[in-house]
């Protein structure tokens, strides 16, 4: 009857404006007749007033068409409702009523991949954050919890698997129409963002898990036909996650079935829909032939993350979207703990610090900077950020440090006792932690409201037998309003000459300034922020001799790695490799190359060349050329003196067993670091070594290591190996993504032709976000030399891409634009070029997603 003109204005919403919903929807019955272009959704809702008021019922709605509305069995006339600007307003008063709304949607035309869409022929849904309103008009907000019963009607021959949340309660075939209707019921009240349904033709891997209280849960992983052999690692990861959550937090799974569906078209990693997770196939499918160790790790941690959401997210959910970190920060923290228990805790911490420093600090210094609990949002999809997720996890981790393992657990227990079945706020979480431990966390909770990265200035002095470390904190550019944050500093004091430990402890800075005093007669230096104990920047000038001492002697391997990163940054800032810092760095690296007795996993990390972004972090105005130079000069100098040793070691290493376990992973990553270093020594011999590593590689990890190293040796070798890979793995999209990533990282003007070539291959479907991210995402993120070329070519390339992608998939476009948002941190010429792109974009018609980012960047 009514067509919606969808022009939802680019209007901001504010956290401070929260009001409870005017109506509640205790039960929701959906009947969905699937059709590629005209799916009909009939929603029968029990709607009741929440409190005393005379407001009309105003539902969020972004469906193609509202066909019919009935209230308590009576049809509404056209003048009794209005459907415009994303709202369906019903002008008939009631206290409690049965509201039936029939609407129509077009899954095939849904290229935004939000709501109900088709992924390579299978129907699936993505409702977080505000996608349910694209399926049916609803109170599409997380504090409206409803019990869902869902009937899906489809042709069972074409779609043998018809799924929704909860338990299957009925299935019948209509012999007149030939269609099958399948009914699911989810007994747990849930917000609409956790709704999911799927219909497709899959291979199914089944297993069972017996919970700690002895209930048997059926575990089901649905993958594309022909991929069954790639789903074992996902299943193992799921069982480990279930067991870990019972052991660590006493949390048991609550339904009889846990389903995971892997789809190829997906905007993010995965989604924790109650009892029916939907995953990007990249985080399900893996075997050693096609997946790297990094991929195995990704599968394990994302499976865990989504599983852990069942309690932190689903049983206790968010009151409003400003509270997103309530579930995401906490669940990331939990998946981090899990990964540390499954693998190597130091490597995990190194990778968290990398994410924080290269991505989160940049976000917090840029125009989209927001507190982990944002105050203002235009497009919610723009706030699934490293700030909300990863800084959010760091904040939870600091609480864990302050309360201790058992105090933290007490807080978690109280949180679930108080809030199971509710939609709550970050403050509720902090209160549970505080109350369970009788501790005042009111100052600590400033971490939730202040954005920006605290900068810690450190000054050390020694008077008599008192050694003092003075700390002072601030946030760059916000000195007036900045309230002191609580900052736990894990430290170790070392004897400056022998490297022996003098003392180890935790200092908690709570004011703008603070002092750690240590009584000692020895000459000492402190190792600060062990285990990355706070997400802060450290301003400290240490003499090179102390830096070296820490690299060689700190008890915490994280800090040994960390000091080496500091040294790299110093060299980049000096802009030359033959200064004092450069020479020290080269010598340290040579030592590490020669010290075969070091732990292989740590040694591999120490020998990894820092990313462009992590060196850029050290600059107020990013010096692109100095960073690029440092990243090649230093390894060249190291290899000049060690190439024989590296070759010998590589030759002696021999084959590593394919199994995914931490010892094997460490060996392979060491091999990768050594190969990469070796690629900085020129000569045909190196090429033939890489070629033979590639040819003889027993798994994908080693093939990719050889390929990455080959990037340093001219385009002929790379292209040759990529073609070889393409031939051996044709029609395997996840392998094709690796090819794209490597090709797009090539530093040379040829990269444009290479991208064009791979984009013209049959496997490259531009409507699939994984393909776009692998090819073009890699270009903007992993190819700094070409992306930031002074010709401006890289920026123009991104501009065209954004215009293209935004029209179809705004979420994807809004991710790709991120590197442009920091434009103010570059030199004048680049600022002008990047700003030009933003200005031109701002004068075109943009999605809400891009609009918010572009306009905040130009504000
Ligand atoms: N809740 C999901 C997860 O972290 C991610 C959903 C992201 N949704 C979005 N529209 N960006 O597990
Ligand atoms: Zn999550």
UniProtKB/TrEMBL annotation:
Its EC number is 3.4.11.2. Residues 29-194 form the Aminopeptidase N-like N-terminal domain. Residues 234-447 form the Peptidase M1 membrane alanine aminopeptidase domain. Residues 549-858 form the Peptidase M1 alanyl aminopeptidase C-terminal domain. One of its GO terms (biological process) is proteolysis. Residues 452-540 form the Peptidase M1 alanyl aminopeptidase Ig-like fold domain. Keywords: Aminopeptidase, Hydrolase, Metal-binding, Metalloprotease, Protease, Zinc. It catalyses: Release of an N-terminal amino acid, Xaa-|-Yaa- from a peptide, amide or arylamide. Xaa is preferably Ala, but may be most amino acids including Pro (slow action). When a terminal hydrophobic residue is followed by a prolyl residue, the two may be released as an intact Xaa-Pro dipeptide. Signal peptide: none annotated. The keyword Cytoplasm does not apply. Its cofactor is Zn(2+). Belongs to the peptidase M1 family. This is Aminopeptidase N.
């Amino acid at each position: 009857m009514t067509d919606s003109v969808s022009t939802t204005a680019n209007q901001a919403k504010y956290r401070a404006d929260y009001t409870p919903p005017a109506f509640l929807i205790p039960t929701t019955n959906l009947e969905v007749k699937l059709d590629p272009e005209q799916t009909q959704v009939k929603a029968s809702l029990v709607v009741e007033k929440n409190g005393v008021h005379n407001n009309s019922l105003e539902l969020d709605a972004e469906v193609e068409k509202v066909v019919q509305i009935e209230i308590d069995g009576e049809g509404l006339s056209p003048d009794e409702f209005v459907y415009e600007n994303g709202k369906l307003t019903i002008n008939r008063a009631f206290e409690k009523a049965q509201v039936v709304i029939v609407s129509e949607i077009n899954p095939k035309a849904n290229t935004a991949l939000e709501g109900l869409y088709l992924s390579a022929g299978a129907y699936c849904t993505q409702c977080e954050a505000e996608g349910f309103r694209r399926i049916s008009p609803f109170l599409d907000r997380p504090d409206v919890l409803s019990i869902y019963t869902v009937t899906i009607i489809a042709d069972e021959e074409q779609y043998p698997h018809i799924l929704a949340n909860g338990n299957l309660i009925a299935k019948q075939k209509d012999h007149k129409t030939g269609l099958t209707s399948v009914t699911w019921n989810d007994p747990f009240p849930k917000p609409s963002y956790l709704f999911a349904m799927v219909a497709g033709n899959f291979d199914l891997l089944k297993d069972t898990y017996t919970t700690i209280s002895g209930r048997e849960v059926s575990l089901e992983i649905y993958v594309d036909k022909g991929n069954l052999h790639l789903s074992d690692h996902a299943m193992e990861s799921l069982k480990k996650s279930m067991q870990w959550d019972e052991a660590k937090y006493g949390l048991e799974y609550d339904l009889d079935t846990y389903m995971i569906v892997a789809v190829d078209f997906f905007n993010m990693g995965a989604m924790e829909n109650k009892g029916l997770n939907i995953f990007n196939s990249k985080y399900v499918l893996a075997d050693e032939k096609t997946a790297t160790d990094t991929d195995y790790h990704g599968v394990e941690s994302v499976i865990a993350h989504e599983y852990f959401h069942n309690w932190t997210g689903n049983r206790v959910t968010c009151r409003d979207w400003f509270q997103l970190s309530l579930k995401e920060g906490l669940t990331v923290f939990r998946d981090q703990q899990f990964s540390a228990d499954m693998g190597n805790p130091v490597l995990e911490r190194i990778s968290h610090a990398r994410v924080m420093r290269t991505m989160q600090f940049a976000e917090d210094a840029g125009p989209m900077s927001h507190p982990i609990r944002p105050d203002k949002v235009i497009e919610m999809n723009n706030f699934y950020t490293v700030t909300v997720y990863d800084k959010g996890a760091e904040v939870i981790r600091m609480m864990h440090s302050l309360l201790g393992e058992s105090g933290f657990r007490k807080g978690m227990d109280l949180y679930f006792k108080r809030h199971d079945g509710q939609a709550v706020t970050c403050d509720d979480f902090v209160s549970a932690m505080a109350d369970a431990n009788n501790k005042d966390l009111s100052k600590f909770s400033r971490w939730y409201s202040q954005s920006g990265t605290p900068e810690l200035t450190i000054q050390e002095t020694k008077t008599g037998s008192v050694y003092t470390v003075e700390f002072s904190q601030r946030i760059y550019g916000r000195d007036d309003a900045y309230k002191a944050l609580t900052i736990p500093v894990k430290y170790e004091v070392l004897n400056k000459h022998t490297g022996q430990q003098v003392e180890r402890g935790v200092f908690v800075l709570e004011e703008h300034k603070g002092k750690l005093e240590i009584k000692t007669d020895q000459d000492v230096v402190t190792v600060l922020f062990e285990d990355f104990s706070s997400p802060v920047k450290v301003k400290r000038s240490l003499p090179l001799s102390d830096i070296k001492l820490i690299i060689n002697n700190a008890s915490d391997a994280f800090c040994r790695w960390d000091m080496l990163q500091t040294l790299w940054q110093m060299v980049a800032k000096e802009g030359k490799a033959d200064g004092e810092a450069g020479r020290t760095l080269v010598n340290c690296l040579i030592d590490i190359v020669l010290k075969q007795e070091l732990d292989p996993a740590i040694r591999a990390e120490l020998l990894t060349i820092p990313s462009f972004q992590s060196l850029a972090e050290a600059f107020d105005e990013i010096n692109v050329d100095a960073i690029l130079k440092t990243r090649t000069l230093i390894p060249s100098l190291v290899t000049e003196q060690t190439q024989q040793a590296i070759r010998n070691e590589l030759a002696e290493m021999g084959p590593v067993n394919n199994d995914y376990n931490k010892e094997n992973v460490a060996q392979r990553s060491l091999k990768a670091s050594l190969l990469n270093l070796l690629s900085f020594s020129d000569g045909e011999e190196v090429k033939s070594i890489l070629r033979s590593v590639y040819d003889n590689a027993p798994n994908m990890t080693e093939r990719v290591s050889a390929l990455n190293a080959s990037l340093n040796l001219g385009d002929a070798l790379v292209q040759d190996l990529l073609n070889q890979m393409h031939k051996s793995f044709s029609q395997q999209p996840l392998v094709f993504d690796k090819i794209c990533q490597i090709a797009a990282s090539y530093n040379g003007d040829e990269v444009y032709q290479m991208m064009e070539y791979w984009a013209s291959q049959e496997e490259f479907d531009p409507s699939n976000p994984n393909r776009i991210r692998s090819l073009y995402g890699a270009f903007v993120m992993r190819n700094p030399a070409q992306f930031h070329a002074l010709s401006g070519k890289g920026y123009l390339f991104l501009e065209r891409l954004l215009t293209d992608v935004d029209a179809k998939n705004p979420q994807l476009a809004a991710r790709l634009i991120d590197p442009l948002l920091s434009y103010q941190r570059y030199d004048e010429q680049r600022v002008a070029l990047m700003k030009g792109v933003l200005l031109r974009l701002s004068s075109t018609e943009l999605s809400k997603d891009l609009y918010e980012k572009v306009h905040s960047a130009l504000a």
